[in-house]
Amino acid sequence: xxxxxxxxxxxxxxxxxxxxxxxxxxxxxxxxxxxxxxxxxxxxxxxxxxxxxxxxxxxxxxxxxxxxxxxxxxxxxxxxxxxxxxxxxxxxxxxxxxxxxxxxxxxxxxxxxxxxxxxxxxxxxxxxxxx
Length: 131
Known about the structure:
mainly alpha
C-alpha cells in the first residue's frame, strides 16, 4: 500500500542541526576508533620490546650460570687430576715399601734382629769449657 499524504507529512526530514550532530558524532567515533587502534599497536610494540629485553637478560643470566658451572667443572677436573697424581705416588711408595720389606725379610735371615731390640742412644758429648 502506498503511503498517504498524512503519512508523508509525519515523515519529515531531520532538522539540519540533528544531521550535523549525527555526522559529528560519527566522525568522533571514527577518530576514537583510529586512536584506540594506534594505541593498541603502539602498546603491542612496547610489549614486544620488553619481551626482547627480558629474553636478553635471561640469556645473559643463563650464560653466567653456564660459565660458573664450567669453572666449577674445570676446578673439579683439576682436583681429580691432582688426586690421580697423589694416587700414583702412593702406589709407587707402596711398591717401594713392599720391596724394602722383601729385602728386610731376606736380610733378616742372614742377620737376625731381635724383635724387642732398640738401639741405645749415643752418650752426650761434653765440650770443654761448657758447664
